[in-house]
Amino acid sequence: MCDTKEKTMRIAVLTSGGDAPGMNAAIRAVVRTARVNGIEVFGVRRGYAGLIAGDLIPMDLRTVSDIIHRGGTKLYTARSKEFEEDNGMRAALKTCIDYQIDGLVVIGGDGSFRGALDFSRLKEKNGEPCKGLPLCIGIPGTIDNDIGCTDYTIGYDTSLNTIMDMVDRVRDTTESHDRCCVIEVMGRHAGFLALNAGIAVGATTILVPEFKYDIQHDVIDRMRRTQNTGKEHFIIMVAEGVAKDIEGGVEALARKIEAETNVESRAVVLGHVQRGGAPTCKDRVVASIMGNYAVKKLLMKGIGNRVVCMKNEKVFDLDIEEALKMTKSLDRELYDISYEISI
């Protein structure tokens, strides 16, 4: 007698690239949505590197208990050069075949999505698509908020609030000593963190990679003008991408400010503190919605090669290739507002 019972769907979830607060909430939503709907779930540890190495663990409802409020990622994360090569992707495919993985949820940024796109395009030597490739779904998780297809990325709000809290603390000592503090925040190619956090802390000047700047005009002369109005302490917010273009970085900028304004100046690089900490309510909720959407609206319907996005507070999905072609611009009007109200 033939057994006509259908194979139980199996999916895997991984986090890739830089960690972002809220990734755990997304993992939790993926796992619980899947398990409630009879889908088996495996967690891939350390991103694509773990997929290549076959480092998968079974996950159930209790595996993801008490992680929604935790920063970082329960599954760990990594960047994998090996996965960029054909041999690496074929090793990852073998893992998917061995574990009978039907769908793969990738939580990360643009680089992670490019990896998913290349993986989905893997061909046999005769040019035919490889058998056993899982349906790939991307969920945007990066503190930089620099993914073009979505208004919002998981981790951004938490990072903004962390920066605001840290700079508020720095401001206390800056004000006490009539100093200038030059703050470097993350954002190698995008100034979303610097601009919005800069406005939130009342920075005198905000330097971002998207807009041209002149140190003499935008920092030194501007500080002198505000000194004439009675201001005696200053915050200068600098995105990482700008700091790397300044010879000597923010330390050199602080020395220049002190030499030309006679205001004692200090440089502070916030560094990886911006990635850590408990996710905010917004990051927990958005991550939960996106994780649920990836499973219920896409994988359970046999839909793959999509990225989960958010526009105007609504969640939807786009083809990965289309999503990767999209860019996001920093709001010039918001930048101009920051310049006008921080004098």
SS-based class: alpha/beta
Provide the spatial order of strands within the biggest beta sheet.
3-2-1-4-5-10-11
Strand segment tally: 11
Uncertain runs: none
Helix count equals: 12
Largest sheet composition: 7 strands, mixed
Whole-angstrom Rg: 23 Å
Which CATH-level-2 architecture of the largest domain? Answer: 3-Layer(aba) Sandwich
Instruction: Note the gap between the termini.
Output: 82 Å
CATH class of the largest domain reads: Alpha Beta
Helix content: 40-55%
> What sort of overall outline do the alpha carbons produce when their principal axes are compared?
elongated
Taken together, the total number of domains comes to 2
Q: Predict the CATH topology of the largest domain.
A: Rossmann fold
SSE topology string: EHEHEHEHEHEHEHEHHEHEEHH
Percent of residues in β-strands: 15-25%
Mean pLDDT: 95
Protein model, in words:
The chain has 343 residues and is an alpha/beta fold. The protein has 2 domains: 10-155 and 279-325, 3-Layer(aba) Sandwich (Rossmann fold), CATH 3.40.50; 156-275, Rossmann fold (3-Layer(aba) Sandwich). The protein has 12 helices and 11 strands. Helix 1 (23-36) packs parallel to helix 10 (281-298). The chain is elongated and about 75 Å long. 47% of the residues are buried.
